[in-house]
Amino acid sequence: MEKSTLLIKPDPECESRWLAAMAPYADTVAVRLWPEVGAPAEVDFALLWAPPPGLLASLANLQAVFSIGAGVDNILRVPDLPRDVPLVRMVDKSLTEGMGEFVVYQCLRFHRGFHQYEAQQIARQWKAWPQTPAAQRRIGIMGLGELGGYAARQLCALGFTLRGWSRRPRAVGGVETFAGSGGLEKFLRGCDIVVCLLPLSPQTEKILNAKTLAMLPPGACVINAARGAHVDDAALLEALDRGHLKAAALDVFNEEPLPKGHPYWRHPKVTITPHAAAFTLPESAAAQVVENIRRHRRGEALSNLVDREAGY
Ligand code: GLV
What we know:
Elements: E1 4-9, H1 15-22, E2 29-33, E3 45-48, H2 55-58, E4 64-67, H3 73-76, E5 87-88, H4 93-112, H5 114-122, E6 138-142, H6 146-157, E7 161-166, E8 175-179, H7 180-189, E9 193-196, H8 210-215, E10 220-224, H9 233-241, E11 245-250, E12 270-272, H10 282-297
Parallel strand pairs: 1-2, 1-3, 3-4, 4-5, 6-7, 6-9, 7-8, 9-10, 10-11, 11-12
């Protein structure tokens, strides 16, 4: 069978890792690294995170677009994304496990008050906080897909009481689930810690706003590892400042890198990580991309197809 041509546009620091990860599949896939596109009509598949304007429209024979990230909002928002070309999201073990670690870490941190001990050490303050049993801590996960479902199972295994919210009804073992706009308030009212892992779509933009943050119980903590645009920043800062919310751990921001003058940087109740909660590792993801290319060539359906209407 003829080789397929795959154009990859990774983060610049990952270029050599993607090339090395694809090398064992050289019999199936000829790799081109953006911006060395070569003859655009020869490109069969594209693997990228955020397509530059005009790139996708220039690839006249494109058969599928693979996202390097779990979220596909960066690709869906490009006006020249061809209508009839399938879009595939990344489901990568390293990404899922990395996100599980991030969520478990931040939840344990807030659950046991380690964020307070971090501040106390700077102030040389010796003060112990009471310990609450995990079963009495209600953690709510927004988004019960690949990442949210995995994080929920990890937290269940630690004994926490889990609830989950998604736009469409979903069942996850051991998790009390809520769905749709009708289920959101009931869900939020029972979250001591809420974790946002939703896909970004017009329906989920600014889903954490003044009204919904006010539905959280007093003293709740917010963790956002999805997209900055899920949060109304002014509303979150207001809820933290007036003491309604205890703390927030934010990995994603409306503007990235977070501008140096942003109030989040120096806010005593906010912990920042630089969009680093979890990464797709080329070493584990390459095999999955190649397997999907092989499926497509055999005329089989692609795995992990994005529903463009839903936006994930
Ligand atoms: C990262 O933000 C991703 O979508 O994987």
